Amino acid sequence: MAKSLFKHSMTAIKTKFTLIYILNCTDMLFTYTLLKTGHFYEANLIMRPIVSNPFLSILVKIIFPAVLILAVLPHLKEESLTSIKLCTIFINIVILAYLAINILHVYYLINILFFL
């Protein structure tokens, strides 16, 4: 996994987009679960009004990202190596951010399950 974070091939980028999508979906599930406990609130100011509506949550966190990824991937083939490298750096940052968010969610869930 760590080795593929630095690859610039289209296959690696597709894999990374898939990982981002999965992490995005798990973020939504964890967030929804934690909000239902009543002990947590949505920290992201932009997402606060969205997470209260299940339809909007699915649209913004599942459907929109899938459409965006499917729209972007074909155009990456036409980009220069420099653009692909920048894209890879940005993707890696997003993966690390989503990993941190998901780890935090798991930590909170464990605390709720075992310590509340």
Summarize the structure.
The protein is mainly α. It contains four helices and no strands.
Secondary-structure-derived class:
mainly alpha
Radius of gyration: 16 Å
Number of strands: 0
Count of runs of 4 or more consecutive helical residues: 4
Count of discrete domains = 1
- Amount of helix: over 70%
Distance between the termini: 35 Å
Averaged pLDDT = 87
Q: What amount of the residues lies in strands?
A: under 5%
Order of helices and strands: HHHH
Gross morphology:
elongated
Q: What does the main sheet amount to?
A: none
Low-confidence stretches are none
As an assembly, this protein is: single chain
Topology (SSEs and partners):
Blueprint lengths: L9 H28 L10 H4 L2 H23 L4 H35 L1
Features:
single chain; 116 residues; elongated; mainly alpha
Describe this structure in words.
The chain is an all-alpha fold and about 120 residues long. It has one domain (about 5-115). It is built from 4 helices and no strands. The radius of gyration is 16 Å and the shape is elongated. The mean pLDDT is about 85.
